[in-house]
Each structure stands twice: as structure tokens, then as C-alpha cells.
Amino acid sequence: MDNYPIAPVSKNNSWTKIIPRTNITFMVISLLLVFGLDLMIIISSPSLMPFWIAMLIVLGVFLVFFFLENFLFRKKFTYTNSAVDGWILLIIILRNIIFVLNFIPFIQLLGLMILGSALTLFYSGYAGYGPLSIFSLITPGLLLAYIILIISRVAATKKAEKAV
């Protein structure tokens, strides 16, 4: 935890501007895809409803991250700066790209492979290195890195608050 220096700042641009704008941009794209293009496809081909339901579930997960980062973490990290903020931003961008891949017709299959890669771990363990095994660590790895960085960021923020 001490490896990530934290210092008081007037306002942290990563958490007050960059991350919220990034999330809003990706959310708008996601909503347009899910409730625009994808809904039109579902109306014309109702047999594809399971894919749209999967998209709604992924959109729900995205909403959880959206609210955590744009409201809870933004408020908590507004007046502190940390060396891990850049890494958190990178993970957020990569994660948001994976989410958007799940909302693009036909590319959704690639997004589902990446997002559902935790299941692929079991497949790879039983069947050797299958064609999906390249994706088996992407999402779990990003999630683990995200959790570690956020915990580190929260701990550093608490430490800085105690010092003040």
C-alpha cells in the first residue's frame, strides 16, 4: 500500500472528469446499441431473444460499475491523487470496450467469449487448451487487477485523510 503515494490536490481530474466522461460515453453507446439497433433486430427476429437478454444482463453489470465509479468512488477520490489512478482508468477503458463488444450484433460472440472467460477456465482445465483458452484470463484478470487497485486506492485515501 505504501508503494502508491497519495497527495492532497485541489481536484482529481481522473475521478471528476475523465472517468465519468469515459463511462458516460460508453454508456450512451451501449444504450443506443441495446435499445436501438439490437432491439430492432429482436423485433424482426424474435428467435434471437436469448442474445438480447444476455445483453440486458451485461448492461446491468455495466450499470453497477457506472454508479460505483461515477458516484461513490468519484465522491471519495475527488480531493486526493494516487499513482494508481492511471492504471484504474486503463482497466475501466478496457472493461468498457469488452462491455460494448457484447452489444454489437455478431461481434457480441467475441464479447461474450471475453466476458464469459471465467467459464472458459473450467473448459480449458478439462479439455486442454481449446480455441477459447486465449480469452480465459482476460476478464478475471482485469477484474482482479481492478479490485486490487481500488482497494489500494481506498486504503491510501484513508491514510491521507488521517494524516490531514
Question: What are the main properties of this structure?
Answer:
164 residues, mainly alpha, two-stranded antiparallel sheet, 4% strand
What best-fitting shape do the alpha-carbon axes yield? elongated
Strand tally, please? 2
User: Strand order within the widest sheet?
Assistant: 1-2
User: Which stretches of 5+ consecutive residues score pLDDT under 50?
Assistant: 130-134
* Count of discrete alpha- or pi-helical segments spanning 4 or more residues: 6
Sketch the topology as an H/E string, one letter per element: EHHEHHHH
Query: Separation of termini?
Result: 18 Å
Based on secondary structure, the structural category is mainly alpha
* Mean pLDDT over the full residue set: 82
How many domains? The number is 1
Largest sheet: 2 strands, antiparallel
How much of the sequence is in beta strands?
A: under 5%
Helix-residue proportion: over 70%
Radius of gyration computed on alpha carbons: 18 Å
Protein described:
This protein is mainly α. The chain has one domain. 75% of the residues lie in helices and 4% in strands. The protein is built from six helices and two strands. It has helices at 13-44, 49-77, 85-101, 108-115, 117-127, 138-163, and strands spanning 6-8, 80-82. The protein has a two-stranded antiparallel sheet. Helix 1 runs antiparallel to helix 2, helix 1 (13-44) packs parallel to helix 3 (85-101) and helix 3 (85-101) packs antiparallel against helix 6. The longest helix has 32 residues, at 13-44.
